[in-house]
Amino acid sequence: MDIGALIAGLPSNIFLILMVMAGIAIFLVIIIFLIKYLMETAPFAYVNARVRSMESRLLDEQKFNELIESAGMSEFIGFLEDTDYGEYIKDSSDIMSVEKALNTHLAHVYGALANMSPEKSRKILKLFEKKFDVQNIKILLRAKYVGLNADETSKLIIPLGTISENKLRELCETKAVEEVVSGLEGTEYSKILSNEIATYEQTKKLGAFELSLDKYVLENLWKSVGIEGTIEDIFKEFVGAIIDIENLKIILKGKADGLPSETVLSYVLDAGYEIAPWKLKELADAESIEGVISSLEGTKYGSIISDKLEEYEKVNSVFIFEHALDKYLSEAGKKLSLRQPFGVGPIIGLIISKEQEIKNLKIITKGKMEGLNSSQIRELLNA
Fold it and tell me: Which end of the chain has less Cβ packing within 10 Å, N or C?
């Protein structure tokens, strides 16, 4: 007997009861879904109101045109005085002080987002703040590498992050790269740097330190987002894309510099969102840039890189690929931000927009210092 005949044979009162029960069940499912959705999004109501206020103060196309067309550093800084960067950049006079002002502003944005966010997303945002620990350590290493004194070094330091200001001042007083490494003993960065001392002594280059620090931050981010749950899932996709792109940058730079695959793989994070560990090894084992592009066929990154091969061959700089990957990440982050417009989406959107804005401001600053014209600067910007 089919279901239709069975239902037709039921007494009308029983059929009515079944229909009512089915309606109640559907209603309860909808209510549970709505309650779950409200529980996940309600904590973000205040945060997202603040985020939208911050977004409204992002620089518009007219302001960027003014900055690109500015006559020099003084006029460039003057055009920023009525923006969120004004209080940070007012005492700047050269490229280093401008970059420090921009980095300090970005650190404060991350700090503000972390402090106002619900607990689940706060933990992830706090890990993003570790970028400024790494930024300071890189500054210290580079400063001592080129022989800057304590005063010159301290002017470059951003007094934010987990390393105390007293410790940063103490590290500014060091005389050599090795002293910076030993001075960080007792911090979470000590072992990472100590493991690269032998490489530094052999090569006299800071690259191993810097790549290891970047890898450490990404590892911590990946561990943090590897949690079940809606809020973490969108962050996982965002962080996964960041890791994919940073891994590709390292591999492309390694191929361009002729590094052996085992060296390249030591600085690549064995994780990501689309590029699996076996694929990373395949990419690192490729003989050339062209081999990397061939191995990327079938991934979302394949066309991004291959479309820039001709331009790369003209200028012989992996910056061409890095610029294209950064642009893709910016676009991908903006799309992700729309997936949870009442949840964590606007936070991701602001992070992407602010990072891109500051990166473009740094490009304009450097262009001005190097005497590039407006057209040349525009070509370097991430639209």
Answer: N
Q: Cβ distance 311 to 292 under 8 Å?
A: no
Q: Are 255 and 289 in contact (CB under 8 A)?
A: yes
Secondary structure class of 260 (helix, strand, coil): coil
Say if CB 108 and CB 161 are below 8 A apart. no
d(CA 178, CA 141): 9
Which of 197-227 are b and which e, b meaning 16 or more Cβ less than 10 Å from the residue's Cβ? eebbeeeeebebbbbbbbbbbbebbbebbee
- Provide CB contacts within 8 A for 313, sequence distance 6+: none
pTM score of the predicted model? 0.80
User: Span 139-163, mean pLDDT?
Assistant: 91
* The pLDDT of residue 236: 85
Question: How far, in Å, CA of 264 to CA of 58, rounded?
Answer: 37
pLDDT at position 12 over 60: no
Q: How confident is the model at residue 246 (pLDDT cuts 50, 70, 90)?
A: very high
Type of residue numbered 205: K
* Neighbouring C-alpha atoms within 13 Å toward the C-beta of 349: 23
* 35: its two tokens: 């309650």
277 Cβ contact list (under 8 Å, min separation 6): 270, 271
Question: What phi and psi values does residue 275 have, to the nearest 5 degrees?
Answer: -90, 105
Give the model confidence (pLDDT) of 257-302 as tens digits. 888 899 999 999 887 788 988 999 999 999 889 999 999 988 889 9
**Distance, CA of 117 to CA of 96 (rounded, Å):** 32
Averaged pLDDT of the chain: 85
Average pLDDT over every residue of 251-256: 91
